[in-house]
C-alpha cells in the first residue's frame, strides 16, 4: 500500500487523519504488522529536546542614523559575528559573555529576546563615506529586529555516545559533570522518539520537511555538520522564524566549568507512506545501541568501554566492566513527549500540513578528524622515568631524606604492587614537622586524592590539569595504576624553553 503526502494532507484538511506518536506506533506495528500499520496510521510524530550547541541566530538590526558598517558587535556583552552586510549579524549559542564568562552566552541572548526582554547592543565600525558612524550603543527587542532567524547547523543527533570518567578526579564536560572512578554516566537523545532513529534511511525526512521548531513551524534545510548516517550519527540542519518561537520550547543552559549551550525543542512528523516507513517507525529503546566512552581520556579517540541500549540507559543504571554505574539524561524525555503530543494535536486540528522534501538527505556523511600539521608532544617524551617512591608505612623522616637526596618536591606513595595510593610533598613534610608529627608515617600526612596522567596523552592536556588543580606534578600511571613516571611543571617549562 502506498500513500502520498498530498493524500495524507487531504485527510488532515478533512479531519480524518490518524496520527500517533512514535511510542504508540511500536505497539501498533507489533499488533498489526508493518502492512497493517501502514493502512491504519497516516502520521507518526517524533521529537527531541536536548542541548544542541551548534545553534544560533541570524538577524538584521536595521540602519542607524548616521549609518554604520558594523565590523564588531556585542549583545549583552556577547560578541556576534559581523562579517556580513552592514547591519546583519549571527550570534552563536555557545559564544561567551566578555564580562559574565561561563555563566552567560549567546544562548541566553537568544532566549532573552524570545522571552520579550530587551538586550544591550554595542557596535563599532571603521567609518566610510556611505557609513560614516563608528559607534552605536542602544537597546533592542525582538520586535525591533527586521528579521531574526534561528539557523542551527547541527541538531537532533540520531543517537549520542554515553560519557563516563575513569580518573580519580571530577571532570566538567559538555556531557555534564562526570564523577571520578565511574561515579556516573550521562547520555543524550530521545531514543524511541528520536526523529532520525524513526527514519534512519531518510525515506520521508529531507530538505524542505516542515517541522516543529521551538514552538514555531520551521524547516529542515539539509543534513547537519558531522552528519554520519553510516555509523548511526546522522544530524539535521534546521531553520525557523525566531519571532514565532516560544521560550517554553527552548532553554539557555550553563554547564558547570564548561560553558553555555542551548536546549532546542524539535518535532518531526513522519508520513506513513508505505509499510517500509511503518516498519522503521517501530524502533524501540531496546533496539537503539550506543557506545559508552571514557571521557577521562582527553584524546580525540576515547576508549569504548561498553555498548548499551537506550532501554538500559533509561533504567537508571548500566553495567560497564563489571561495575554498576548510575545514569542520568542530559535531554528531557518528558519534554520530548510533550512536543510529540503537541505536534500530533496541531496536525489533527489541521494547523500543520506535511511537506514533500525537495531533495533527499545524503546517506553518506563525514565526521573525520581535523587535519593537523603539528605533531603534539606526548607525556612519555618529557616525563621523568627514574622515580623514587615510598610506602604508606614508611616514616615521614625517611620520605624527607629521599626528597632531599633526590632533589625532589614530590614522592608518589605506592602499595606493594607499585600501584599509586597517594603522594607526599616537601610541603607535607614541612607541615608534619611544624605539627610535631615528624616521627609519624607517610600514610598520616600524604594526599590520597591524586591527580594523575598517562604516558600517551598530549603534554598540553597534562599542563591544563596542572593549571586547573593548581598543582606542580602529576604521577604518570599505566593501565594498572602502577607509577611509571612523573611529569612536573619544570618538565613542561623546559620543553617550552627548548622550542
UniProtKB/TrEMBL annotation:
UniProt-listed Gene3D superfamilies: CBS-domain
InterPro entries per the UniProt record, alphabetical: CBS_dom (IPR000644), CBS_dom_sf (IPR046342), Diverse_CBS-Domain (IPR051257), HcyBio (IPR002708), MA1821-like (IPR016426)
Residues covered by the CBS domain: 383-442, 446-499
Keyword Oxidoreductase: no
One Pfam family hit: CBS
Keywords: Amino-acid biosynthesis, CBS domain, Methionine biosynthesis
Entry annotated with the keyword Electron transport: no
Gene Ontology biological process: methionine biosynthetic process
Protein name listed in UniProt: CBS domain-containing protein
Organism placement in taxonomy: Archaea, Methanobacteriati, Methanobacteriota, Stenosarchaea group, Methanomicrobia
Amino acid at each position: 500500500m502506498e500513500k502520498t503526502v498530498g493524500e495524507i494532507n487531504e485527510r488532515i484538511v478533512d479531519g480524518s487523519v490518524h496520527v500517533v506518536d512514535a511510542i504508540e506506533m511500536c505497539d501498533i506495528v507489533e499488533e498489526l504488522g508493518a502492512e497493517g500499520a501502514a493502512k491504519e496510521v497516516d502520521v507518526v510524530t517524533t521529537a527531541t529536546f536536548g542541548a544542541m550547541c551548534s545553534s544560533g541566530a541570524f538577524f538584521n538590526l536595521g540602519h542607524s542614523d548616521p549609518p554604520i558598517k558594523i565590523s564588531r558587535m556585542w549583545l549583552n556583552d556577547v560578541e556576534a559575528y559581523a562579517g556580513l552586510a552592514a547591519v546583519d549579524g549571527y550570534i552563536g549559542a555557545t559564544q561567551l559573555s566578555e564580562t559574565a564568562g561561563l555563566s552567560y552566552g549567546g544562548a541566553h541572548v537568544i532566549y532573552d529576546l524570545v522571552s520579550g526582554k530587551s538586550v544591550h547592543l554595542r557596535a563599532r565600525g571603521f567609518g566610510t563615506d556611505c557609513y560614516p558612524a563608528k559607534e552605536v550603543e542602544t537597546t533592542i527587542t525582538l520586535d525591533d529586529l527586521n528579521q531574526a532567524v534561528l539557523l542551527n547547523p547541527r541538531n537532533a543527533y540520531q543517537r549520542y555516545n554515553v560519557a563516563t570518567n575513569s580518573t580519580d578526579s571530577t571532570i566538567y564536560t559538555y556531557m555534564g559533570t562526570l564523577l571520578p572512578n565511574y561515579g556516573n554516566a550521562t547520555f543524550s537523545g530521545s531514543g524511541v522518539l528520536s526523529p532520525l532513529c524513526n527514519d534512519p534511511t531518510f525515506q520521508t525526512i529531507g530538505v524542505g520537511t516542515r517541522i516543529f521548531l521551538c514552538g514555531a513551524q520551521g524547516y529542515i534545510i539539509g543534513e547537519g555538520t558531522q552528519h554520519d548516517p553510516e555509523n548511526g550519527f546522522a544530524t539535521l540542519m534546521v531553520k525557523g522564524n525566531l519571532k514565532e518561537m516560544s521560550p517554553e520550547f527552548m532553554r539557555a543552559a550553563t554547564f558547570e566549568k564548561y560553558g553555555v549551550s542551548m536546549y532546542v525543542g524539535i518535532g518531526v512528523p513522519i508520513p506513513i507512506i508505505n509499510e517500509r516507513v511503518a516498519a522503521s517507525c517501530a524502533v524501540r529503546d531496546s533496539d537503539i545501541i550506543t557506545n559508552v566512552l571514557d571521557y577521562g581520556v582527553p584524546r580525540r579517540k576515547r576508549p569504548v568501554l561498553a555498548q548499551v541500549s537506550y532501554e538500559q540507559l533509561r533504567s537508571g543504571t548500566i553495567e560497564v566492566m563489571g561495575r554498576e554505574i548510575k545514569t542520568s539524561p542530559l535531554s528531557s524525555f518528558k519534554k520530548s513527549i510533550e512536543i510529540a503530543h503537541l505536534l500530533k494535536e496541531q496536525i489533527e486540528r489541521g494547523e500543520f500540513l506535511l511537506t514533500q522534501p525537495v531533495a533527499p538527505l545524503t546517506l553518506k556523511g563525514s565526521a573525520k578528524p581535523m587535519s593537523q600539521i603539528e605533531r603534539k608532544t606526548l607525556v612519555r617524551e618529557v616525563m621523568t622515568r627514574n622515580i623514587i617512591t615510598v610506602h604508606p608505612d614508611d616514616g615521614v623522616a625517611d620520605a624527607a631524606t629521599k626528597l632531599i637526596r633526590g632533589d625532589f618536591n614530590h614522592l608518589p606513595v605506592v602499595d606493594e604492587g607499585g600501584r599509586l595510593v597517594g603522594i607526599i610533598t616537601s610541603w607535607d613534610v614541612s607541615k608534619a614537622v611544624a605539627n610535631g608529627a615528624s616521627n609519624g608515617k607517610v600514610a598520616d600526612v600524604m594526599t590520597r586524592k591524586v591527580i594523575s596522567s598517562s604516558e600517551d596523552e598530549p603534554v598540553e592536556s597534562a599542563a591544563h590539569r596542572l593549571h586547573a588543580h593548581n598543582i606542580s606534578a602529576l604521577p604518570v600511571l599505566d593501565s594498572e595504576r602502577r607509577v611509571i613516571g612523573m611529569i612536573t611543571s619544570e618538565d613542561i617549562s623546559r620543553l617550552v624553553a627548548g622550542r
